[in-house]
């Protein structure tokens, strides 16, 4: 089915507030890249500390209010992390579900979309079900992994998803890892669609041979990103080779991580940049020697569903060192585009870093291999038709179901 003139409402917990915003930029980029299909897109997302609805890229973004302004930050550092550290946020989570469901219904009545794309189907699939059922709008569920890993801590999540999944008209996963988690709950068709670049890659920048090698970490400062293990690895690296580490991102563990740097005497080695613009982020990728993502399976059983930052690093022709967990193994081909190491292992991280720093030619070849791989497997020219096929199939199935219901009624 042609998507020309079809209206798709995208329900997501994260979405940028401005063209420079990075929070949820992969959702925004997928929408922008899909616009040539002729489809119209509308976004429905939670408010962040009282922010109002707005238009971005000529797309209407509805921000739903669910609590007092000071508590409207449930998803900013990852809802599971916030709920674990601050149990009172359970009340906020309940309001998020109830008020979000109500407001989504009325937005759907107003906008009359042809299709709902639901990112993170728990809890968003549950929230979208009333509007889907009462207004006869088909749903596509797009899984990222984190919502499925909640099953390890809350068994009822599996029951909810098993009930919801047969009602969908399409299901997608961002990696083979996420697909494996879905298969524990659902045997129907699932399309694996990764995400592509959200920034324009810059050519690598040559650095003087006298300059200290630069490591780069990009990500939220929370448990599952595993930054603490990279910090523990740095003294082992520094014993043989001077390096510096630049950290892009903020998060709930920021103060703990900075305290760890002081304990390890790394204040002059690690620089915290906080949130940066897309342009600044591209520069950081271009200037680094090695990109490192020491992700882990955290205490909640959560881990990386894919790891878009690694795709961005590869597009900048940088070798990547990462942990062999979750969807990371879908991105990095160990020995070809980077090195994969066991999680929570500072010694293995240090050895991998020293190995690549000692062999610049090998590191450069990994960077070239990475760029070629990204251009083949993670290009938007490959990804957009996959989304188009999923949306078209969902609309076609819904149309046939509607026709069948009408004929039976007669």
Describe this structure in words.
With 410 residues, the protein is of the alpha/beta class. The protein has 2 domains: 7-196 and 379-409, Glycogen Phosphorylase B (Rossmann fold, 3-Layer(aba) Sandwich), CATH 3.40.50; 214-376, Glycogen Phosphorylase B (Rossmann fold, 3-Layer(aba) Sandwich). Helix content is 44%, strand content 16%. It has 15 helices and 14 strands. Helix 3 runs parallel beside helix 4 and helix 8 crosses helix 13 (346-358). The radius of gyration is 22 Å and the shape is globular. The mean pLDDT is 92.
Topology of helices and strands:
Layout: E1 7-11, H1 25-34, E2 40-46, E3 54-56, E4 59-64, H2 79-85, H3 89-111, E5 115-119, H4 121-135, E6 139-143, H5 146-149, H6 156-164, E7 170-173, H7 176-183, E8 191-192, E9 214-218, H8 227-238, E10 244-248, H9 254-263, E11 270-274, H10 278-287, E12 290-293, H11 308-315, E13 320-323, H12 328-331, E14 338-341, H13 346-358, H14 360-377, H15 380-409
Parallel strand pairs: 1-2, 1-5, 2-4, 5-6, 6-7, 7-8, 9-10, 9-12, 10-11, 12-13, 13-14
Antiparallel strand pairs: 3-4
Helix pairs in contact: 3-4, 4-6, 8-13, 11-14
In short, what is this structure?
The chain is α/β, with parallel strands linked by helices.
